[in-house]
# Entry
Amino acid sequence: MAEDDTGIGGSSGMGFSLRVLKAVLLAVVAALSVVVALPMAVLFWIMWPWTLVFQRFSQPAQAGEEPPQVDNAASQISIENLLGLHAPRQIDAVFEGGGVKAIAQVGAVRAAEDLKLKWSLLGGTSGGAIVASLLAAGKNSRDIWQILTRTGLHSLVAVWYLPRLPWLQKRLYFVLPLLPHLLFTKGLVSGAEFLRIMNTHLQKNDQQLLFRDIPNHDRKQEPEAPRYRLKMVATDISRGTPIILPDDLPYYWEPWDHARRSLNLPVSAASRLSPEDAQDCWPVAESVRMSMSIPFFFNPYALHLNVDDDGKSLIKDRMGKKGKKVLIVDGGISSNFPIWLFDTMDRRPTWPTFGFLLDETKGTKGHSISSIGNLIDMALSVVTTGMGAMDKRLSEHDQYRTTRLRTLRVNTTSFGLSLAKQSELFESGFQDAVEFFKRFDWGEYLSRFRRERSTVAQDSDDQY
# Structure
């Protein structure tokens, strides 16, 4: 057919070429692994027990019983300016993703607690989802600080973590032994240890914390308000779309099946389930695991669609059959700072939504320069640079409600961060939040909200 040179035929040819290129690249990596990496991998695993001993005794004490001492923020801020004379002391909060840098957000949480602000709706991505979920579970800044320091950030990735040994990285080309592993997996770390730790700290009465355990009580007054107090963002890379959790859980098979098992329903009774059941019964820790799955570092979280290839539901009649497998990774790929999570333009806000953004350039001259020592560092730098880059381009209204927190040149995956550096991050986050609260004015916030709503309405009218 003449059409084969273009259109469908051309697309097919391009697809075949890409498959060939992919196969060639895989063969090259496999050859490199056999010739170079495998001998080093053997040496690596021989050394492994000794590195564990070194890790055990060389890590700084990670048991910060109390967070760093800071001045009480309440003595420095006018609560009337912050929230208005008669406004409730409630805020919604959205935390940007940033891995280890989330410790700065814990300091900002402490500043909000000094002002006796109550958390209403909470949202975040990746590391921000960790902070938001712990707050939704009733933890405070002291609790979160202790969780992070007692656990030791490196233990979240214990399967892969090794002490930073420059001589090992340079002389043994540290990254090469990992190539055989990457040929058969999609990440360096399974995420199992992270999930275990999150479940432990999110437990309610020794049971997994489910989304139904954190309802939004303000929904009684506003029926259209979110069903739960917590939302987080992840990315479905198989379909190329961001997903909001728990809102989008009903699009996948596992939440329905988990709900059926939780409610002790047989497969034949799956038709009794509702989308709300799929959301209600899903563990919060599983959603956090999805949101923080940094590509190449953590294995993606696997789910299955709840429809077959013809678009027919697999829930109502054939609960035993799954749809196509999809992979879920870090929400930062699609929206690392989802300040928009709780926005509604059809009504005046009763209290503000504050965003806690991790600003790598604040307090530095120009852009922060990251140290890239090997292939893994480079891959992670590429990913984290692209994560939510457009989220930094905030509207006038979003800028006014966003706290920019210094990150002190700490990298997203600096899991071996010393206790002293963690304390420094906490203190800087506290100070930056205090300065933000000093400047914030509720009246100005409402004025900017009205201008934003007017702009959105005008843009909508221009489309018709």
The radius of gyration is 24 Å. Residues 13-58 form one domain. The CA atoms of residues 393 and 399 lie 9 Å apart. The beta strands are 90-95, 118-125, 187-189, 230-236, 241-245, 296-298, 301-304, 325-330, 353-359, 402-406.
